[in-house]
Specification:
Strand order of the largest sheet: 2-3-6-7-5-4
CATH superfamily of one domain: Lipopolysaccharide (LPS) transport protein A like domain
Radius of gyration: 31 Å
CATH topology of one domain: lipopolysaccharide transport protein A fold
Number of helices: 2
Largest sheet: 6 strands, antiparallel, barrel
Shape: globular
Number of strands: 11
Helix content: 10-25%
Structural class: alpha+beta
CATH class of one domain: Mainly Beta
Length: 201
């Protein structure tokens, strides 16, 4: 009797160990089967965002290592399907040392880092305050595409541009900040007011 108890305990432990091993093995086999049965094409086309950041501030650097502009906003959401970032209430500040600073705002934006594009939607507004050498500048539109690599802005929507007291409106625009060129496509109307001359003391 005394010698049988350890043997029975040993046999019970062996049965439990084998059962546990079989259970874990079965779980592993089921998991492998589940993963192998999934369509690999659907795994790479998930539509849900994989991360988001609230109250962010992102600085864009040039190839020479200088800060070009910074983008801030209430929320940034990454879409893994096309590697784009949706931005709520974006604000873009230019950081050029050679040109007056400009601030661009919109209700929402979509940043495509693969192609260097920043799409800005709804109540888009660009402001540049007056300086000793330049008049105040303001641009309004419902859509604006910023080509970050080329320093170009364009839209196919109506635009309203105010420079000092002069106003220019039209539909469709291409503005090259590097060459200081501005083109409007159609329905162009302009009201020109010469800049105010400084008063001599």
């Amino acid at each position: 009797m005394i010698r049988e108890r350890p043997a029975r305990r040993f046999s019970v432990m062996m049965v439990l160990a084998i059962s546990a091993t079989l259970a874990l093995g079965s779980f592993w086999v089921l998991e492998v089967m589940r993963r192998s049965s999934e369509d690999p094409t659907t795994q790479g086309t998930r539509s849900e965002p994989d991360y988001f950041v609230e109250k962010f501030n992102f600085v864009r650097m040039s190839k020479s290592g200088e800060a070009q502009y910074n983008i801030s906003g209430d929320k940034l959401t990454h879409n893994p399907v096309d590697n784009t970032h949706a931005i709520d209430l974006p604000v873009v500040h230019s950081l050029s040392n050679t040109r007056p600073p400009m601030t661009t705002r919109a209700v929402r934006a979509l940043a495509d880092q693969n192609n260097g594009k920043l799409h800005m939607y709804e109540n888009v507004q660009i402001d540049r305050p007056a300086s000793a050498r330049t008049e105040s500048f303001q641009l309004k539109s419902e859509y604006l595409l910023i080509l970050t690599e080329d320093d170009v802005m364009q839209t196919d929507k109506p635009v309203e541009i105010t420079l000092g007291k002069s106003k220019l409106t039209g539909t469709g625009m291409v503005a090259n900040n590097a060459t200081r060129e501005l083109r409007l496509s159609s329905n162009v109307h302009a009201t020109y007011q010469p800049p105010a001359q400084p008063v001599s003391p």
